[in-house]
Amino acid sequence: MLKIDAHTHILPKKMPNWSEKFGYGDFIYLQHHKMGYAKMMRGNQFFREIKDNCWDPDVRIEEYKQYHTQVQVVCTIPVMFSYWAQPLNCPRHLKIPERSHR
């Protein structure tokens, strides 16, 4: 029988500090402060601590093997949506290639 984890979160290991780069907002970025852990920072404020299973697929695979899970549905953490971001900054923040306008 196929076992699916239908709700799990994933983030990239390295995230730029977009608040510093763009000069506004409380974008989330990571501060890796000890082996296997990072602080999610919202602007200059601590948001929560996460473990390497959030960015390291090998760790995640080993963890879900113990539960006999074959598939995970991964999504970002809702705070990452940044609906308030200025439109011109969104392609860089979301890593969507900008298109040239002719």
Describe the protein's topology.
Blueprint: E1 4-9, H1 18-22, E2 28-34, E3 37-42, E4 45-51, H2 57-65, E5 71-75, H3 90-94
Parallel strand pairs: 1-5
Antiparallel strand pairs: 2-3, 3-4
For the record, the count of structural domains works out to: 1
Q: Average pLDDT, to the nearest integer? A: 85
Helix content: 10-25%
Strand content: 25-35%
Total helical elements: 3
| N-end to C-end Cα span | 53 Å
Main sheet summary: 3 strands, antiparallel
Name the overall outline: elongated
Strand order of the largest sheet: 2-3-4
Low-confidence stretches: 96-102
Model description:
It is a single chain. With 102 residues, the chain is of the alpha+beta class. The protein has one domain. Helices cover 19% and strands 30% of the residues. The protein contains three helices and five strands, in the order βαβββαβα. Strands 2-3-4 form a three-stranded antiparallel β-sheet, with no helix packed on it. The longest helix is centred in the middle third of the chain and has 9 residues. It is elongated and about 50 Å long. The termini are far apart. The C terminus is likely disordered.
What is this entry, summarized?
With 102 residues, this protein is of the alpha+beta class. It contains 3 helices and 5 strands; from the N terminus they run E-H-E-E-E-H-E-H. Strand 2 and strand 3 form a beta hairpin.
